[in-house]
Design a protein that fits this description.
By secondary structure, the protein is of the alpha/beta class. It has two domains: about 160 residues, Rossmann fold, CATH 3.40.50.1260; about 190 residues, Rossmann fold (3-Layer(aba) Sandwich). The protein contains 14 helices and 17 strands. The strands form four sheets. It has a six-stranded parallel β-sheet, sandwiched between helices. Strands 10-8-7-15-16-17 form a six-stranded parallel β-sheet, sandwiched between helices. The longest helix has 16 residues. Bound molecules: adenosine monophosphate.
């Protein structure tokens, strides 16, 4: 494996797969530049070595070919001001223009390629398309962890055209370092906190975690599938009725492996799915008909916080309730605070997945946990398999 940090980019053109899939307002102004800022250290290292940079990314989900609202040219002003230098732009990511622009790049210059997904070959992982991209540069750098679980042309397939000149950028390197701490030899007790909408999307990770963790905390809507499976009354709460058997199987497996599963004992219920709904706190298995459980209750918060407090490794994915509505955000907030507190006492804490990251940012606690992972699907898949197509392609 080539180490990005020790590689000398002088005189080299590096094609960097970044994640510039950023949100825009109605005037196509970037509203959150976190991802652009995140890529800067990697870009700057290449430039300061005396190399040049070709940036490639996807943006949104264009259906058929080029569409202005998915054009990466809209990020140029933000990119130029964060880099403090002009950025050249190839309006087609492959073809004669891109070839001409990339071959005339001078040291210290940056070229941005148009949205890769304007070609269906990108997501199809087409080899010919990957080969065309590869001809633009001397070195391939993958710095987009969030798409590393996809075997797309720019995230995976392209690596084979750089057998001796492929590496991870600083973002991916730090992401892997964080994840490897929870994957390999985590300090015990190890607690996983899972929440969010559905059990079905997280089955494999739950099963995988049962081999590793001491405690598994379950909150969010997925709790109701477990509570109903145990014979509880869940009112009109969100549930996956076709996953009840699976929930029982998970509980049995946990017991057999000596993993403690913590389900909420009380919940905040509402008479409608609205922040203005009437609310009450009841036992989690005694929800009246017509009411919905939308957050964990106060007793549960204390129980979960105590377990988190006593843990040395904590992994968190998925909110404890409908945290987007202020009246159902307390459980998620308190779990985030408990994680921050445990971290201050020396625990390693990792937060991952879009919603939990949004929650931790909203609370201003992102700097008080050990690691905030950018990858949602990629993170879960890495924790499940210990590998991802885009990671393997560079490591091989
Ligand atoms: P996920 O993408 O699976 O992590 O799910 C995140 C979503 O789960 C968020 O939008 C939450 O609002 C939602 N969620 C969490 N708890 C509940 C609940 N008790 N009822 C309905 N939705 C919930």
């Amino acid at each position: 494996m080539i180490s990005f940090e020790s590689y000398n980019f002088a005189g080299k053109r590096a094609i960097i797969r970044v994640d510039f899939n950023v949100p825009f307002d109605e005037n196509m102004k970037v509203t959150d530049d976190t991802r652009i800022m995140g890529a800067l250290p990697t870009i700057k290292k290449v430039l300061s070595d005396g190399g040049s940079v070709i940036l490639m990314s996807h943006l949104g989900r264009p259906k058929q070919g080029p569409e202005d609202k998915f054009s990466l040219r809209h990020i140029i002003p933000t990119l130029e001001s964060s880099l403090g230098k002009p950025v050249k732009f190839a309006g087609d990511c492959i073809g004669s223009d891109a070839v001409q622009l990339s071959s005339s790049l001078k040291k210290g210059e940056v070229l941005l390629l148009e949205n890769l997904r304007f070609y269906k070959e990108e997501e199809a992982g087409n080899e010919g398309f990957a080969q065309k991209l590869s001809t633009l540069a001397d070195v391939y750098v993958n710095d987009a962890f969030g798409t590393a679980h996809r075997a797309h042309a720019s995230t995976t397939i392209i690596a084979k055209f750089f057998p001796h000149n492929k590496m991870f950028g600083l973002l991916v390197e730090s992401e892997l370092a964080g994840l490897d701490k929870v994957l390999h030899n985590p300090q015990k007790p190890y607690t996983a906190v899972l929440g969010g909408a559905k059990v079905s999307t997280k089955i494999t990770i739950i099963e995988n975690l049962l081999d590793r963790v001491d405690n598994l905390i379950i909150g969010g809507a997925m709790m109701f599938t477990f509570i109903k499976a145990n014979g509880g009354k869940i009112g009109a709460s969100m549930v996956e009725d076709d996953k009840l058997d699976m929930a029982l199987a998970i509980l049995a497996k946990a017991k057999a492996k000596g993993v403690k599963i913590l389900l909420p004992v009380d919940v905040v219920i509402a008479d409608s799915f609205s922040n203005d709904a009437k609310t009450r706190i009841v036992k989690s298995n005694e929800i009246p008909d017509g009411w919905l459980g939308l957050d964990i209750g106060t007793e549960t918060i204390s129980a979960f916080s105590a377990i988190i407090d006593g843990s040395k490794t904590i992994l968190w994915n998925g909110p404890m309730g409908v945290f987007e509505m202020s009246n159902f955000a307390l459980g998620t907030k308190e779990v985030a605070k408990a994680m921050a507190k445990a971290t201050a006492k020396g625990a390693f804490s990792l937060v991952g997945g879009g919603d939990s990251v949004a929650a931790i940012n909203q609370l201003g606690l992102a700097n008080e946990v050990s690691y905030v992972s950018t990858g949602g699907g990629a993170l879960l898949e890495y924790l499940e398999n210990g590998d991802l197509p885009g990671i393997k392609a560079v490591r091989e």
